[in-house]
Design brief:
single chain; 169 residues; alpha+beta; 3 helices; disordered N terminus
């Protein structure tokens, strides 16, 4: 779909579409357990953060549910894919719906911020749960393809989330 402006150029929506596609693609890779492909979307210095306070902006000044650097992300992926995440044996089936994407300049050392809303449904052993919130993807766009430098997951109600969250990436 092309959104042409009055001057014949593409609109802001057209320029933002590759970033929206990256966020949707990331969700699909996670839902299908393609963790190696998912990891290739991330920069070598990437961080993954789930704060306790959904309005938090700095992991140094906030309590965290998860605050992972590249090494911890690799550890988490190893546990998920090897069967060592005992809370995920058998593994959960997970589906994410991502929408409401907005793009803006990033103040965190990357080039572009993508903010989106998500709903994550997880099912395991006859039980199903729903987690919702927003994502902030800080992207580095200077290379051949955009890479995720920082992902922040703001849970709608972090206090209502109970049980293992090994699948939460």
């Amino acid at each position: 779909m092309t959104h042409t402006g009055m001057d014949g150029t593409g609109t802001e929506l057209d320029r933002a579409e590759p970033y929206f596609a990256l966020v949707r693609h990331e969700a699909r890779l996670l839902d299908t357990g393609r963790y190696d492909d998912w990891l290739r979307l991330y920069a070598d210095d990437a961080t993954y953060w789930v704060p306790v306070d959904p309005a938090a902006t700095d992991p140094e000044d906030s309590l965290s549910i998860i605050c992972d650097d590249r090494k911890r992300i690799l550890d988490r992926l190893f546990r998920l894919s090897s069967g060592y995440a005992h809370a995920e044996v058998p593994p959960s089936t997970v589906r994410r719906v991502v929408s409401g994407c907005e793009v803006s300049p990033c103040p965190h050392g990357a080039d572009t911020d993508v903010v989106s809303t998500f709903v994550l449904v997880h099912a395991r052993l006859g039980r199903q749960g729903v987690i919702a919130g927003d994502y902030l993807h800080c992207l580095s766009t200077g290379g051949q393809r955009p890479l995720i430098r920082r992902k922040r997951v703001g849970l709608l109600d972090p206090h209502a989330v109970n049980g293992p969250l090994a699948f939460l990436l």
